[in-house]
Amino acid sequence: MEFASENEVAAAGQHVSALTEALNQVIFGQEELVELVLTGVLSRGHILLEGLPGLGKTELVKGLSKTLRLDTKRIQFTPDLLPGDITGNPVLQEVDGRREFVFQPGPLFTHIVLADEINRASPKTQSALLEAMQERRVTVLGKTHDLPQPFFVLATQNPIELEGTYPLPEAQLDRFLFKLEVTRNRVDTLEKIVSHRELGAEPEVNPIMDADELAQVLALVRRIYLPDVVANYIARLVDATHPETSSASRHIRYGASPRAALSLASAAKARALMNGRINASFEDVRFVAPAVLRHRIVLEYHARVEGVTPNEVVRSILDEIPGQSAATPKVMNTP
């Protein structure tokens, strides 16, 4: 595989900078959140946004779809939503003089799916997303239907402490590249929102890229160089999330899967491109690690009782595991 050149990365970086600037005008005071959302998209991953209602999660996703000129459908998850309501159902129709079942695609058949308040749907309906998120296809009555490309699920959820919610199972959480926490706004940000927003009015966003341009950038991300020492660092980080492998792992019951390691590598490459670099670095991995790992580790009961959070465990692992291992070369080679 031919690695990305500096000229290619610089050209793509201009598009990404324009996307970043546009999304920062959609949601104020959340620059790191915007950077992580774009990193997730450039990694071809699905993103789970968690936060209290009214913090701008849905507006951010809608703004992203406008800037990328991608088809978007919104699914409002409710307790009575059925799997067929999102995947689609066969409908009995008359075809060439015969009556037969014809598949009618559901709202999953789009580029960006806004799964709003995903944890308000029943586990049966949540599980209907598993095949779509992993394999970009759905199977209904034994027939498989491919989804449009690119395909992203950007889901929002309220904290599980709120009434009327169903915690997402670990198998589905593992399908999300990132879990991002949307925090409340500072006073100066609230003042800006009050001065520049009207209740019920959506912010205007200009298109930045189309599907073809996005496809070129996504292909370029895959060509970003991942040095062996960075790959080794990723492997050691994921290994440290398992019991008896680090001091912080005493709080962990189950650690991250190999999918987490692949997610770290993809996200590190995407962030390198966003910063105009042709190779991923230790700093890229450290930046995306909390978003990749926080939802992939299951804490022991005693840790939850003591108030230990996944974020604290991930930070402890990052502090403990050095970027450079004594067993790896000291020189980071570039292509």
CATH class of the largest domain: Alpha Beta
Number of strands: 11
Compute the number of helices: 14
**What can be said about the biggest beta sheet?**
5 strands, parallel
The CATH topology of the largest domain is given as: Rossmann fold
Estimate the mean pLDDT confidence.
87
Radius of gyration: 21 Å
Q: What topology, given as strand order, has the largest sheet? A: 2-5-8-1-9
- Which class do the helix and strand fractions yield? alpha/beta
How much helix, percentage-wise, in residues? 40-55%
Poorly predicted runs are 329-334
Terminal CA distance reads 11 Å
The CATH architecture name of the largest domain reads: 3-Layer(aba) Sandwich
Shape: globular
Q: Tell me the β content.
A: 15-25%
**CATH-wise, what's the superfamily of the largest domain?**
P-loop containing nucleotide triphosphate hydrolases
Spell the H/E element sequence. HHEHEHEEEHHEEEHEHHHEHHEHH
Count of folded domains: 2
Enzyme class: hydrolase
GO molecular function: ATP binding; ATP hydrolysis activity
Domain AAA+ ATPase: 43-186
Pfam family, one: AAA_3
